[in-house]
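Re: the multi-chain job from yesterday

Posting the exact lines I submitted so nobody has to dig through the queue logs.
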Amino acid sequence: GAVVSQHPSWVICKSGTSVKIECRSLDFQATTMFWYRQFPKQSLMLMATSNEGSKATYEQGVEKDKFLINHASLTLSTLTVTSAHPEDSSFYICSARDEREGTYEQYFGPGTRLTVT
Amino acid sequence: GQNIDQPTEMTATEGAIVQINCTYQTSGFNGLFWYQQHAGEAPTFLSYNVLDGLEEKGRFSSFLSRSKGYSYLLLKELQMKDSASYLCAVIDSNYQLIWGAGTKLIIKP
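And the result, structure tokens for all chains:
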């Protein structure tokens, strides 16, 4: 199956700083990648859909100026949490859509646990 | 609106069988996924159904009825490691993945 990597696996940062998370599809090209956030004991929440070469589509309630998404190549999307605050502490998961087989299955990265102090 | 319903939590006994149901109402249908998610980890793919019927894969099987907007995931010979959340997700007509809230499965010895 397809492999998606995510870096870093975990990060601790101070309030007010910015954090960048990378999502890479290792063995396939992904026109579309997705960024999710998951708080403890809650379900996945889609934050935005990242399209290669164009602006990301954000879900309602997600601040696009706070969560900057860049999908500069077919294998890399980045999420930057700007001016992070403790309430941004969460598990951030990316996925990449593999369209080769026509199933549009999403392959998930291992996630990034962000703690803002 | 689009809606996917699945039970919040289920409990089963090690070695037994459990069926997790999922009903959906979406704008179009291009397939249904089941994912498994252990606590603190990202979801992993279990199955994909796009045609009616039962797909069997080892201890796990997934069933789909498009006319009823219904799917179930069947887990046999339950093991303690099967304790996890099971997520149902549907691809709509825009090829967007619509997620259910997940079913937390608790396995007891």
